[in-house]
Design the sequence.
């Protein structure tokens, strides 16, 4: 793959990503049309807002709810482009402001969890990368269990063990690093389980590849082979999953932030869902989807630059986040 | 030199896989005939016996209203597994339709269809599963029906992707070319060659998908968006046990352990099916 | 050549693992920084965690709900207050007079009272506040209703303000005591609603410093504070200097934070948490039921089946509330058999009107004609099932209360009722009520004094406000009851009013239109090393101005 060829392909990928972003926004608009009841009433805060007939008329005019649907769609897209996500029903401030307040703690939690997940996954793969079939089986079973664990159950058990019984960590996050350990662990362990499974599959597959045999025949040390070829072919499929892992962690953050009373996008989202605050819910979900698209694009570009062979074919094996 | 690390080539299931199959069988039995298996009705309130730890009379203990946790877990299997199965079936149907549309639209005439279908699949995939489900529940309101459809739509893109790839591959394969040259009608080609070939890997994914659907539905129940009280849904039971965690850990522990068991069982069986398929 | 052993990568694994552990352990040491006191000096920083929702606007004039009242108590003060006996005592107003016809009130304001921005608490300030409440642009609900009878507020002298009423209001003082009618600095109001919502300026013991939305509010002590209400002393020099007001909606997390010392005081504890606190040496419990109405289930008397008194009585007889309260609330919520809170001096308990008797219930239903049963065991009459829709919202009912409703549902089922509980979000719940889609509902109402009965059971209260809201969920329209309630609202004769209040409660008990459950629960749990923590008796909001921590 020559340099110039890569640039063209990169441009095509970016174009594809933009198309996906547009589709994401369109799907969100379609979902909005299914909200039952009068949209003007919903815009004023739902059936309980008890708006007068005059207020409903005013809302209809202001939000253009009596215009044809295509006009409303373009209005919606144009507002999105300018960063206008509407106003929260409950907090009466722009949704972009709500997101801005909440995004910092969530990104901190998500990235901490991602790092922890990677660390745990690598430890698991490396420990069991020896020749012992038994060690690999045990590690494989552990990964499988970890990946299947519901994170809200795990979080409760972590709180019970480490906060209530042992008292090592605080049960609720009130600032300070110790408050982030349990929530990050609860998020990281299931993700680590899955990352480890994928890495190990890649490692196992590469183990018997022809180039490894020829490397052995050339007299390279086992250590050299392991580090260079095996790890690399376990890491690349794992890196492909970064976008998926981010999406999965953002989803998990919703439940974890509630359990640990951490401020952030997740708690904001759940409060919004329970209070039927549509603009906030839409804002958080759109943000997460866009974050996924951008991260997937970036990792795709990086990997295709580094190793053109392992393209997003591997992403096909990924389950839903 | 001995080669320690050949890929295992065995037919049939291992011991672990039989156990997983048996466990899943028990859970399905719980879902189909809970009244036969549960010792007590799941809604039987008995305030005098609240918070009793696991014992012979109450193997999983009792909850804050004195209800037997084992019975509630057994009845909860019906809620959770049915939601998981129905949501997976609906998701499969939607995913297969979308994937076939994307994969089967070839040529310049159908390029816009292919383009749009591809983008819709990727866009749906970009929403994290739980968040998409939460958005749909905000739109439709909480309840079992909303959860089923929300989970179905969340899981559909995964299947769509796989079907799309399978269809494309099948359409370019030898037997299909031959059938075309022979003059077979398109419908026959699709029905006998393309779809069966494309769907085989998807069915394995669907087995894993049931596990994912159950966890997703439980997460929604945990947040209080599922069946109204006092329905014995695993996620809701888990959440209602949280205030009593230090006093009565069993109320939270056992429903969660069931969810974990479903996840492990479906993963193990799914892997075994995939292995069988590859070596068949 | 033999391959080198695989020990080297294993060593790497162990190294990685040990490094990870080594990184994590010091973080555990950081946890001691979270709140556990290590010295004998009182802590200067106080943390309060509330389970009530985060208000959208901190100015209690806008809207008017309990979460706003909780916070406003620390920052804003009212003209008068209630003491622990239920008597009105002076606060920002030092004395008052009322004319014989009850239409003119004059309030003399306290000497030297100022808002934290230096503006004096004078007659002009009071006038501005009343006008702010009555201005439709403010969007006040609770405060607006409270001062509805006030036609105008005029400045008579610098420290004397005159209220002219449209008709006599026997409950005016109780209304003025509420936090939703608290006095704010006119300069603060003049900044406009956006800014005033973020940080209203009052004369209270704390000043709002910063509001981090969806997380917490930071407050600092008002150094110039001089206007403590009667019965509560001025803050000691050792009282807390700064206050963090945290929003923690999850009950388990909130209590866990209290136990771990990360938080000093919490509200809305679960019953079993109260038990733990009572049995613990580190924690203490304050029980402060809210005034106004008790928590009751109201039966919609305007429609089948509860338009028939026998069916209402049957439902009441089928419910075993006491047993549910004992197990679900662990004894921390005593049974109420009155429409009024036990905090009200005029509350009349009627235990004989609310006895559990399933046999009686069955007999009454048979007598009322609901004699057939369908396959599920639900009674039917002329092909119609004995159904009662019961919308419930998590925003008004705790988990334990929802479980209690389920038990009542089960008891009703035994005699053949089909009670359908639907769990809704707050907005949809209001919608269901506004659309009359209910046969029974539990809707709390906080208002001081027996006048709350007029708000809840007068026929006027069945007329929806422009917003669609009405408070008379039982849909009672009885002239005899109306007359009693009017007396409560307008009679300036104390004896006449008290007699009417008692008679009204008897009428309600005899008509079987409500099933009272308990007082509006209002419990606080706090660290045992706190002193001078109390509730301000008016609506029993927490008074944090005098708290000494440690």
Sequence:
């Amino acid at each position: 793959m020559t340099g110039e060829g890569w640039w063209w392909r990169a441009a095509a990928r970016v174009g594809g990503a933009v198309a996906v972003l547009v589709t994401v926004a369109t799907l969100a608009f379609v979902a909005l049309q299914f909200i039952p009841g009068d949209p003007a009433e919903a815009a004023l805060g739902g059936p309980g807002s008890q708006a007068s007939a005059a207020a409903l008329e005013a809302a209809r005019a202001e939000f253009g709810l009596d215009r044809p649907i295509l006009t409303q769609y373009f209005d919606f897209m144009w507002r999105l482009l300018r960063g206008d996500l509407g106003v929260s029903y409950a907090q009466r401030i722009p949704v972009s402001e709500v997101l801005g307040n909440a995004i910092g703690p969530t990104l901190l939690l998500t990235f901490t969890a991602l790092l922890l997940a990677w660390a745990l996954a690598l430890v698991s793969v490396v420990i069991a990368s020896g020749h012992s079939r038994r060690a690999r089986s045990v590690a494989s079973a552990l990964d499988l269990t970890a990946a299947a664990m519901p994170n809200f159950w795990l979080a409760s058990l972590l709180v019970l063990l480490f906060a209530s019984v042992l008292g090592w960590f605080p049960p609720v996050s009130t600032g300070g690093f110790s408050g982030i350990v349990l929530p990050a662990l609860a998020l990281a362990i299931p993700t680590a389980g899955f990352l480890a499974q994928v890495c190990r599959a890649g490692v196992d597959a590469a183990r018997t590849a022809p180039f490894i045999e020829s490397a052995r025949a050339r007299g390279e040390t086992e250590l050299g082979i392991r580090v260079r070829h095996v790890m690399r072919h376990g890491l690349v499929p794992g890196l492909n999953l970064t976008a998926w892992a981010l999406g999965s962690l953002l989803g998990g953050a919703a439940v974890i932030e509630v359990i640990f009373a951490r401020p952030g996008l997740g708690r904001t989202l759940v409060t919004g869902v329970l209070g039927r605050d549509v603009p906030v819910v839409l804002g958080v979900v759109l943000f997460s989807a866009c974050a996924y698209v951008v991260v997937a694009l970036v990792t795709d570009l990086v990997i295709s630059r580094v190793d053109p062979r392992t393209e997003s074919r591997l992403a096909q094996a990924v389950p839903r986040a | 030199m001995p080669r320690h690390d050949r890929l295992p080539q065995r037919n049939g299931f291992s011991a672990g896989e039989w156990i997983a199959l048996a466990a899943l069988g028990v859970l399905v039995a719980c879902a189909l005939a809970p009244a036969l298996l549960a010792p007590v009705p799941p809604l039987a309130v008995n305030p005098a016996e609240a918070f009793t730890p696991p014992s012979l009379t109450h193997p999983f203990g009792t909850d804050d209203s004195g209800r037997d946790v084992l019975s509630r877990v057994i009845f909860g299997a019906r809620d959770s597994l049915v939601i998981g199965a129905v949501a997976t079936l609906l998701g499969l149907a939607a995913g297969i339709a979308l994937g076939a549309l994307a994969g089967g639209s070839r040529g310049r005439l159908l390029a816009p269809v292919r383009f749009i279908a591809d983008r819709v699949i990727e866009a749906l995939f970009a929403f994290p599963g739980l968040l998409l489900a939460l958005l749909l529940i905000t739109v439709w309101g909480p309840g079992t029906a909303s959860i089923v459809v929300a989970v179905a739509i969340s899981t559909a893109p995964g299947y769509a992707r796989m079907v799309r790839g399978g269809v494309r591959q099948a359409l370019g394969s030898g037997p299909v070319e031959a059938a075309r040259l022979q003059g077979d009608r398109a419908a026959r080609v699709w029905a006998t060659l393309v779809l069966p070939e494309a769907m085989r890997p998807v069915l394995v994914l669907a087995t894993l998908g049931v596990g994912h659907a159950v966890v997703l539905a439980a997460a929604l129940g945990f947040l209080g968006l599922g069946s109204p009280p006092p329905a014995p849904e695993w996620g809701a039971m888990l959440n209602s046990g949280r205030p009593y965690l230090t006093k009565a850990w069993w109320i939270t522990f056992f429903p969660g352990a069931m969810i974990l068991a479903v996840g492990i069982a479906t993963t193990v069986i799914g892997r075994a099916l995939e292995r069988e398929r590859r070596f068949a | 050549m033999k391959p080198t052993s695989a020990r080297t990568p294993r060593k790497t694994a162990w190294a990685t693992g040990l490094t990870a552990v080594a990184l994590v352990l010091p973080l555990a040491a950081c946890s001691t920084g979270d709140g556990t006191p290590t010295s004998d000096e009182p802590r200067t920083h106080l943390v309060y965690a509330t389970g009530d929702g985060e208000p959208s606007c901190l100015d209690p004039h806008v809207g008017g709900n309990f979460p706003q009242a909780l916070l406003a108590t620390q920052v804003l003060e009212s003209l008068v207050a209630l003491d622990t006996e239920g008597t009105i005592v002076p606060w920002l107003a030092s004395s008052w007079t009322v004319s014989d016809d009850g239409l003119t009130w004059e309030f003399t304001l306290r000497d030297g009272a100022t808002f934290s921005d230096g503006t004096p608490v004078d007659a002009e300030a009071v006038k501005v506040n009343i006008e702010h409440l009555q201005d439709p642009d403010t969007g006040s609900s609770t405060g607006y209703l409270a001062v509805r009878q006030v036609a105008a507020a005029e400045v008579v002298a610098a420290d004397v303000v005159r209220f002219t009423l449209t008709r006599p209001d026997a409950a005016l003082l109780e209304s003025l005591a509420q936090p939703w009618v608290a006095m704010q600095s006119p300069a603060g109001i003049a900044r406009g609603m956006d800014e005033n919502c973020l940080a209203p300026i009052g004369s209270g013991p704390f000043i709002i410093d910063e509001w981090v939305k969806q997380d917490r509010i930071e407050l600092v002590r008002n150094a110039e504070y001089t206007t403590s209400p009667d019965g509560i002393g001025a803050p000691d020099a050792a009282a807390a200097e700064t206050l963090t007001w945290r929003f923690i909606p999850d009950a388990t997390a909130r209590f866990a934070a209290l136990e771990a010392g990360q938080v000093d005081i919490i509200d809305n504890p679960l019953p079993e948490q109260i038990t733990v606190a009572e049995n613990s040496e580190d924690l203490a419990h304050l029980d402060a039921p809210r005034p106004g109405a008790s928590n009751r289930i109201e039966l919609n008397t305007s429609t089948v089946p509860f338009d028939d008194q026998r069916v209402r009585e049957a439902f009441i007889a089928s419910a075993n509330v006491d047993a549910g309260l004992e197990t679900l609330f662990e004894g921390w919520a005593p049974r109420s058999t009155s429409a009024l809170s036990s905090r009200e001096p005029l509350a009349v308990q009627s235990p004989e009107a609310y006895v559990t008797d399933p046999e009686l219930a069955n007999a009454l239903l048979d007598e009322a004609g609901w004699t057939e049963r369908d396959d599920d065991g639900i009674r039917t009459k002329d092909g119609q099932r004995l159904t009662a829709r019961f919308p419930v919202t998590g925003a008004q009912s705790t988990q334990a209360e929802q479980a209690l409703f389920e038990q009542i549902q089960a008891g009703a089922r035994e005699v053949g009722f089909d009670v359908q509980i639907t769990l809704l979000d707050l907005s949809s719940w209001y919608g269901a009520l506004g659309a009359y889609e209910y046969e029974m509902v539990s809707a709390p109402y906080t208002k001081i004094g027996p006048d709350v009965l007029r708000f809840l059971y007068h026929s006027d209260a069945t007329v929806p406000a422009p917003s669609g809201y009405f408070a008379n969920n039982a849909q009672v329209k009885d002239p005899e009851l109306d007359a009693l309630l009017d007396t409560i609202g307008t009679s300036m004769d104390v004896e006449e009013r008290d007699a009417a209040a008692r008679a009204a409660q008897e009428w309600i008990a005899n008509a079987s239109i409500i099933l009272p459950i308990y007082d509006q629960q209002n419990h606080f749990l706090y660290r045992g090393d706190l002193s001078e923590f109390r509730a301000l008796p008016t609506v029993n909001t927490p008074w944090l101005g005098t708290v000494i921590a440690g």
